[in-house]
Amino acid sequence: MTKADLVDSVANKTEIPKEKAEEIVNSLFDDIIAALKNGEKVNISGFGTFSVSHRKARTGRNPKTGEAIQIASSRAAKFKAGKTLKESLS
């Protein structure tokens, strides 16, 4: 499912114009991103939890040359599925 598919689904299920459904979906994504940027967790009951993972700086290897390179520290989004979502997939 793509973002466009999600917008179409919301528009059809709620019987609202596609443009309004796209605003709603974009707003939801924007709010999740803003919370993660602030270091907050986003918990959607029954669905799952979005959080930020911190990766330390480390030394890696260039696979082509074998040369050691420094990899900078970074932050990444992480998702953990909730109980209801896990059970629905079983």
From TrEMBL:
<dbReference type="InterPro" id="IPR020816">
    <property type="entry name" value="Histone-like_DNA-bd_CS"/>
</dbReference>
<dbReference type="Pfam" id="PF00216">
    <property type="entry name" value="Bac_DNA_binding"/>
</dbReference>
<dbReference type="GO" id="GO:0003677">
    <property type="term" value="F:DNA binding"/>
</dbReference>
<dbReference type="InterPro" id="IPR010992">
    <property type="entry name" value="IHF-like_DNA-bd_dom_sf"/>
</dbReference>
<keyword id="KW-0226">DNA condensation</keyword>
<keyword id="KW-0238">DNA-binding</keyword>
<comment type="similarity">
    <text>Belongs to the bacterial histone-like protein family.</text>
</comment>
<dbReference type="GO" id="GO:0030261">
    <property type="term" value="P:chromosome condensation"/>
</dbReference>
<dbReference type="InterPro" id="IPR000119">
    <property type="entry name" value="Hist_DNA-bd"/>
</dbReference>
<dbReference type="GO" id="GO:0030527">
    <property type="term" value="F:structural constituent of chromatin"/>
</dbReference>
<protein>
    <submittedName>
        <fullName>Nucleoid protein Hbs, DNA-binding protein HU-beta</fullName>
    </submittedName>
</protein>
